[in-house]
Protein: Phosphonate ABC transporter ATP-binding protein
Amino acid sequence: MTAALALRAPQLMTTPPLLTMTGVSRRYGDVVALDDVSALVYPGEVLGIVGESGSGKSTLLRMMNLEDSPDAGDYRLALPDLPGNLFELDRFARRMLCATRIGIVYQNPHLGLLMKNSSSGNVAERLLIAGERSFAALRSRAREALDASEFPLERMDARPIELSGGMQQRVQLAKAIALEPALLLLDEPTTGLDVSVQALVLDTLKRLQRDRAITMVIVSHDLGVIRTMADRVMVMRRGRVVEQGLADQIFQDPQHDYTQQLVHAKL
Ligand SMILES: Nc1ncnc2c1ncn2[C@@H]1O[C@H](COP(=O)(O)OP(=O)(O)OP(=O)(O)O)[C@@H](O)[C@H]1O
Structure:
């Protein structure tokens, strides 16, 4: 066992989870996207969700972001004033919760950003929802979030449509962290970027995680990304969780046939 693993494992086990999902199922017509999925995410950790295309990863993340409702299941976040099953919240309460306590970065920046508004305006929009009304404060807080996302500040008034893919992801990230969310969701955040740009964005995510201990859930079909980012890994196939455990254990000693195939295909 490595020193890092020895230090990390007991910490995870002794802290109550921030996120608890139990028995979540979702069908779309005949397609079973999620079949009785349960998940725990502990404060300050990065949970990586991996699996082939169509395995249900993005659907699960959308559930965590309350964008969709399951056919069955329970979802709790251990935050003040949030008792009960979050799937039972009405649309307004969901929107406020997501805007203020949950951040998300999508693979497709069009889902997360208004492409024709300025980058700083995109971040400020999140702050406005939370009640910030002073122009000077909006601008300085947007600047701070963009800086933390390692976005070049001289371009903060550029529109995302004018920016590279890597820069667009940094704007999404700044928007996602502007209100210091309890949970940051990342759906294939670097897929489609050049390898060198991908590495830089992953570096930023790792630094943010280290400096701010943000609890993250990252979805990727790319085991390299999951290996770089995750403390624990959940492997999905056909809407079910087939294996989960500490990242080192999953990568060094995968138990399920499917995980073994994934890991060996990558090596
Ligand atoms: N809104 C929807 N309407 C119909 N089918 C859907 C919808 N969302 C997801 N599905 C289906 O549910 C299954 C799981 O999709 P999901 O996007 O969660 O998989 P994934 O593991 O994220 O794959 P990918 O990486 O390709 O997005 C797929 O068969 C998909 O076609």
About this structure: Residues 195-212 form the longest helix (18 residues). The CA atoms of residues 21 and 142 lie 32 Å apart.
